[in-house]
User: Fold these one by one.
Assistant:
Number 1:
Amino acid sequence: ISKWTTTANLFTIISSKLVDDSTKIYDLIKNKRTLKKILNIDENNPIFKTEPKKLASFAKKYKLDIELTEDKSKISIPNKKSAEVFVKLLNDDYLISELTKSLYDSRGKKKI
């Protein structure tokens, strides 16, 4: 696994200015499973251009562990679980069934 790729993907997250503190995301690179998810992040993903309020609204609707900072300008990542959810958002790993309107994790079609 390339240290350069990992650094580039972390830089993409930081430079997007979506999160207030990327420390918890950085901590995820210590685990192979979550490191792979960080490596899969596409720097051209439209989610990087999405307003934090819209991401937080999506997360709230589906009870995902993502919240806004107090001033509502960025996503707050206070813990590991929030960091993992945020990385999944960046990988566009959430899928909504048109038929049932249920939210699934697209990696294993696990109902959330």
Number 2:
Amino acid sequence: MIKVAPSILSANPLILENEVKKVEEAGADYIHIDVMDGHYVPNITYGPNIIKYLKKITNITLDVHLMITPVKHNLKSFIDAGSDIISFHPEADNESEEIIKMIKNSDCKCGIAIHPKIDVRDIMKYLPLVDMVIIMTVTPGFGGQKFMEEQTTKISEIKKIKNENNFNFEIEVDGGINNITSKLCIEKGAEVLVAGSYIFNHPVDEYKKLIKSLK
């Protein structure tokens, strides 16, 4: 069963509560929250406060993707805010195993994200420890980028490792997802699809059809 995680990076911030409720009604499985700090990536987006706010208005799983450095120093605030899943980039902090332990010891699931410049072999040691692996099919930092098809080979690699070792993590793909690229990712083994502009750049009454087209 494929899950869809609409990314609020592409939602209308002036009506964010309505946007979240509408995608939830339309069949979204997670809400994806891109946290950027202007250091790990050049853009700046949300902080813990938005997660705290969303927790009050929805029961849907909050899938938080930290694109920040350092990670550990800021982690507790995202846990305390009510994140359900917290994913981070291991190369952004030299205490990755301690970060995974901190997340797992809280009420959150833990994920790692693979930047397009990072090889699967560089994150192998974390795979037995996590609940989610995000494969980035764009360079993190901005919404609406072109899908990098060459990155889909990592989906196959991760799927193979998962199956051979009976790991339990979900395979999520983030970046440039639409009704065409989603099929490429699903064929390779994707289980969760992050979609922003493909959903939120259309009228609200099309959300259900768009989410269904990804699955």
Number 3:
Amino acid sequence: LQGIRTGLAPVGKEEAIRAAGALLAACGYVDGEYAEAMVARERVATTYLGMGIAIPHGTAEAKSRIRRSGIVVMQYPEGVDFGDEKAHLVIGIAGVGDEHLDILARLSASLEDDDLLQRLLSTHDPKVIYNALK
């Protein structure tokens, strides 16, 4: 549950990505430099998926900065601007090897359920998010 933050005040896109990177580092998934690789990745192509969700992750060059695979979830009820869209869930991911593909596939499957997605966007309880995405 230490990797889940709910009810966050809106911030800029890069600040939200850096916050997700810092939480990935605090949870022991990555080293402290990984957040900058996440920002660099976002500058190349957006990690906004749609439905109020962004999944920032580092560049391929930053793979060596990943200690173990994991995700963090940052919930912004008022949203963070990702171009013309607002992300209400910023899910930072780090995957060893190709594990990020498995993580993305599992997240995509979970987030296709509209009722579940609405609960994740509105809950104040980190356990709800944890149980939905574990």
Number 4:
Amino acid sequence: MKNHILFSFLGAIILFIWSFLSWAAINLHQDEQTYTPLEKDVLSAIAETGLEQGMYALGQGNPTGGQEAQWAEWESDFKGKPWGVLNYQSNMEMTMGMNMFRGFTKDLLIAALVFMLLSMIKDVSYKTAIIMCLSIGLIAFMTGYYNGYIWFKTQGIYAHLLDAIVPWTLLGLLGGKLAVK
């Protein structure tokens, strides 16, 4: 039990610090946060439309007429033309303290679950722990970020790949140290 608590806490610190390094200190995700000098104009134009906050795939056609009508509209009005994904929030609120608390709590839960999985392996070794943790990181990367990259050409794919490799390898090393029986 002591190793589980220790791994959970240290694993959460690894995940939390890596996230800070990746998104802020080193800023590997710069491509996903590119500045445009048109931002005030774009945001004002969107706000003037009365658009409700939400996430929108722009350039797909109106779905209310059914899939065939939507496809026909896409082919006539959108195919070969600009498109985008818009995550529109009508009010900028940054609750840094609560976001950091939620992020660390999430990391704590993830690390506790990873240790639980490692503990289920009969003869866990450093190699097994690293392969298991790296597999978890790569599975999460491929089902989430890489899938988005395939369909929406999202930026920052290599940064997300590093996010799947570096901290998860470190968790594997830690797991090998604390879960080896």
